[in-house]
Amino acid sequence: MARNYVTFVIPTGYWKPRHDYLTTISHAVASKLQMGDILVLSEKAISVATGRIVDEARIRPSTTAKIYAKLWMRLIWGYLLAPICRLSKLTTRRLRAYPLQEGAAHKQLALSHVGFLGALRHGSEGGIDVSNVPYSYASLPLKRRDEAAKNILETLRRTNPIDMTVLIVDSDKTYTWHNIHICPRSTTINGIVNLGLLAYVTGRAFRLRPRSTPIAIAGKPLSVEEALRAAALANKARGSGSGRTAWDMAERFGVGLTEVTWESLTKIKHRPIVIVRRILG
What we know:
Elements: E1 5-12, H1 21-29, E2 38-42, H2 43-49, E3 53-55, H3 63-84, H4 89-96, H5 100-118, E4 137-139, H6 145-157, E5 165-177, E6 180-183, E7 192-194, H7 197-205, E8 209-219, H8 224-238, H9 246-253, H10 262-266, E9 270-278
Parallel strand pairs: 2-5, 6-7
Antiparallel strand pairs: 1-9, 2-9, 3-4, 5-6, 5-8
Helix pairs in contact: 1-6, 3-4, 3-5
């Protein structure tokens, strides 16, 4: 249960492309880790640091992508799926006014990376994310996520060889019903099933328990429930950075949807690292 755990948020600066995140993580947590700790890290922060970003302004959308933006997003999501998924009135209004030019480029990126079915999501398609990144950039999911987790663990063990776990997570939700766990994106965690759009619609419509999705693990093994619990605790402690969505981020800075700058993001306190520790007794 959550009361048996304590979280320690480790603030850092914003990780731009080519940032040495391994050194940053090592220096930030070296004196804080204890035996059995779970070190939870943001996938997006690592994706940006490793250059897994794409400028959507350079993408030329296909006819299919334009149909996705105008018909699927504005009509199907805006008037049919939004009520089924119990989306807020604000989110529903945003979907009904989905930006056609920028939206089509985004959908083209989704079609190229996660395919026809993955692009059906209204956001975070297959782990693609446009929040907490500047201008018209989108961050892509990590390609070798298990390798990234292992590299972090090996880096930490050079100076602190304790028994611990490294967990990389995405804020996109996994939905739980009893011991069944479904999510809308790929993950290497055994026991979580990727059902794409169906997972999101089912989870939201039936109000299944939502928790952030663990996507890679290294070190001391965790059960699927332990991994989900740690991901949820870390997400709650971390907050949403500059905003939960691209719309929220733009409103926070008082600019257009694709006008947030690198400089603006560097002024915000970022929390890509969270230590989750179980309290005994």
